[in-house]
Design brief:
By secondary structure, this protein is α+β, with helices and mostly antiparallel strands. The chain has helices spanning 17-33, 46-60, 64-68, 112-115, 131-159, 168-171, 244-249, 304-334; strands at 6-8, 36-40, 80-82, 99-104, 175-183, 198-201, 207-212, 218-222, 227-230, 238-242, 259-261, 269-278, 283-284, 302-303. The longest helix has 31 residues, at 304-334. It comes from Coniella lustricola.
Length: 350
């Protein structure tokens, strides 16, 4: 496979059973192969996509002080601005050359999810400089994408020969996190082995829906040919990929595939992924049809909260250890304690 399939999703909403079955079969084939495909005619208008992308660009154009006023570190529930080089998803690489802004369901501090410290659940932070339009635009897009995620899970259920509503309970009270992402252009003389926009990784949740701007950089690993496949942006289309929860759920019959971002375009790249984790208390265990009766499941049951929280902690922990190592090195060179700032972290970008 030299490219990621582009699937017409409108068949899901049609009254033509043959067209819907063709859609299900195309999705099944993609999930069995590498868990990646693109969809068009999915019901999220191009105007809404363009509006949220414009909002993302406005946010990242703010000065550092305005962005830091809504820093993710202000919360314990993963909402707000994440500065450059805060995460390492690929072991052995340097912190990633991207900055982001986390948005989720805008719940209040008296909501049970917040009170019980459920996964990524709490009020959003909003940049004062951009006013209510930024909030309205991003939340409208967020809600449309969560609804589309529910429809995608219905197609996934059908692709596994399950009832269409098999995943409805998983989506009842589902946690989904949206990230506005900005990748500065990578220096042409950077070390390709050490630095990434996002390092090679698999996603943590069930499914991811990605809106790309016109600048490419997303690459998907094709183990069959041992090559990286470039996912060229397609206007109006969304990239869909399965995460580790879905792979676990299907006993690895469906793939959670490795992907990365390397921005060698010389231009600013923007993208907006929505990560659907599901209801934090939902127990994920092997779907019976995904193994033979005499076979053991490859993974024990786990709640969404347990699985996704552990993955987040690991990736951000790598970046913290990296920074701590640099701080220790600087201190030993100077003979005194020192603080590592963002600008002091070496940049080596592919």
């Amino acid at each position: 496979m030299s490219q990621i399939p582009l699937i017409d999703f409108s068949a899901f909403y049609s009254s033509d059973p043959a067209a819907k079955q063709k859609l299900v079969e195309q999705v099944r084939a993609s999930c069995l192969y590498n868990g990646f495909f693109q969809i068009k005619n999915h019901g999220v208008p191009l105007e809404k996509q363009e509006a949220v992308m414009a909002s993302a660009k406005k946010f990242f154009a703010l000065d550092a002080t305005e962005k830091q006023a809504v820093a993710k570190e202000n919360t314990a529930w993963n909402r707000g601005y994440e500065m450059l080089r805060s995460q390492i998803l690929e072991e052995g690489t340097q912190p990633e050359l991207k900055e982001g802004f986390y948005i989720g369901d805008d719940i209040s501090t008296d909501h049970p999810y917040f009170i019980n410290k459920k996964l990524n659940s709490g009020p959003n932070q909003w940049p004062a400089a951009l006013g209510s339009e930024f909030k309205d635009t991003t939340m409208s897009y967020y809600k449309s994408m969560v609804a589309l995620g529910g429809d995608l899970l219905k197609v996934l259920a059908l692709s596994l020969d399950l009832e269409e509503d098999y995943f409805v309970g998983f989506m009842d009270g589902a946690v989904a996190t949206m990230r506005l992402l900005h990748y500065p252009p990578q220096p042409p003389d950077a070390d390709a082995k050490l630095t990434r926009g996002i390092g090679a990784h698999t996603d943590f949740g069930a499914i991811t829906l990605l809106l790309q701007d016109e600048v490419d950089g997303l690459q998907v690993w094709d183990k069959h040919s041992s090559t990286w496949i470039d996912v060229k942006p397609t206007k109006g289309a969304l990239v869909v990929n399965l995460g580790n929860l879905m792979a676990r759920w299907t006993n690895e019959m469906y793939k959670s595939n490795v992907h990365r971002v390397i921005n060698k375009s010389g231009k600013e790249r923007y993208s907006i992924p929505l990560f659907i984790s599901g209801n934090p208390d939902y127990m994920v265990e092997c779907i019976p049809v995904c193994k033979k009766p005499e076979e053991q499941a490859k993974f024990p049951p786990v709640t969404v909260q347990e699985a996704v929280s552990a993955a987040y902690a690991e990736s951000y922990g790598r970046a913290q250890l990296y920074r701590a190592g640099l701080e220790k090195t600087d201190a030993s060179h100077a003979g005194t304690s020192s603080t590592v700032t963002e600008s002091s972290i070496p940049v080596a970008v592919a």
